[in-house]
Recover the amino acids of this structure.
């Protein structure tokens, strides 16, 4: 299959490069410098020139707090540009695999969110991503929308790397302990996508919305604890004291979902993939980071 990856320099884009490296697919990796999705006409011309069988959209505006002040830009990248890509996919009759987020929910549930649960984004970022989903669904293109959460890896900027950086310079940290979610290793998302691709080639799939995330819920405090446990095993400096604090003690511009656990049953059943083992992901990401330095 001919595959186009948009957002190749982001953490998921780089993980897709790792996971698709030794496959038979012909993969085109494009960064914002090569295809700027905010330029609709240029994006259309370049995609038509490549004429892919599948587009994987790993590009997004992900600065959750900044989105509150930059709502037009967030909407442009996460909604309007996505609508343009979906329309191009429809014209070319190619598949679109698009990555969305747990932020489309309000976080007030007390059981894992299913794909058919009602959405209610609480901020500009979540709203823009939700509008992107709706644009894809209304475009008529063949698509898979994959909502994920708390993504981390050895690449880019994320909570895992922030904890290692802060742990190296601080002896005491305060981490939010009343928000619950599922950390997701980006390499596992890439593996899941790679596992899904054959069913698209064989035309055994229909368009749909799926959840994919870590296998066990935890708080940010719990997440940090496991990160530092693994870091310590590798001889890295870690804080002596980690305090669990309430969300109210760490105000942010954008509201964070108090509960954003996603139910991954549907994607596991339909494509025979495994939920992300985020503890193993931390171990793998830690080792990969060491080899990079």
């Amino acid at each position: 299959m001919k595959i186009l990856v948009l957002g190749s320099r982001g953490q998921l884009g780089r993980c897709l490069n790792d996971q698709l490296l030794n496959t038979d697919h012909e993969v085109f990796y494009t960064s914002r410098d090569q295809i700027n999705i905010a330029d609709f006409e240029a994006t259309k011309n370049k995609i038509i020139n490549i004429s892919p069988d599948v587009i994987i959209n790993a590009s997004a505006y992900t600065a959750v707090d900044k989105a509150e002040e930059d709502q037009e830009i967030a909407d442009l990248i996460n909604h309007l540009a996505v609508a343009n890509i979906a329309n191009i996919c429809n014209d070319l009759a190619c598949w679109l695999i698009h990555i969305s987020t747990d932020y489309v929910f309000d976080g007030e549930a007390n059981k894992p969110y299913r794909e058919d649960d009602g959405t209610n984004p609480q901020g500009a970022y979540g709203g823009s991503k939700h509008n992107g989903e709706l644009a894809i669904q209304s475009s008529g293109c063949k698509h898979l929308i994959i909502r994920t959460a708390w993504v981390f890896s050895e690449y880019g900027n994320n909570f895992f790397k922030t904890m290692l950086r802060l742990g190296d310079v601080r002896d005491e940290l305060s981490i939010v302990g009343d928000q619950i979610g599922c950390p997701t290793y980006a390499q596992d998302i890439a593996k899941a996508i790679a596992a899904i691709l054959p069913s698209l080639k064989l035309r055994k799939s229909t368009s749909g919305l799926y959840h994919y995330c870590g296998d066990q819920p935890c708080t940010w405090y719990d997440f940090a604890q496991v990160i530092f446990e693994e870091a310590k095993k590798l001889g890295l400096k870690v804080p002596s004291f980690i305090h669990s604090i309430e969300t109210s003690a760490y105000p942010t511009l954008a509201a964070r979902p108090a509960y954003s656990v996603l139910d991954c049953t549907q994607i596991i059943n339909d494509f025979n993939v495994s939920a992300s083992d985020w503890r193993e992901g931390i171990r793998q990401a830690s080792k990969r980071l060491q080899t990079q330095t």
Remarks:
- The radius of gyration is 19 Å.
- The chain has ten helices and twelve strands.
- Residues 2-157+183-213+261-276 form a domain with the Rossmann fold fold (CATH 3.40.50.720).
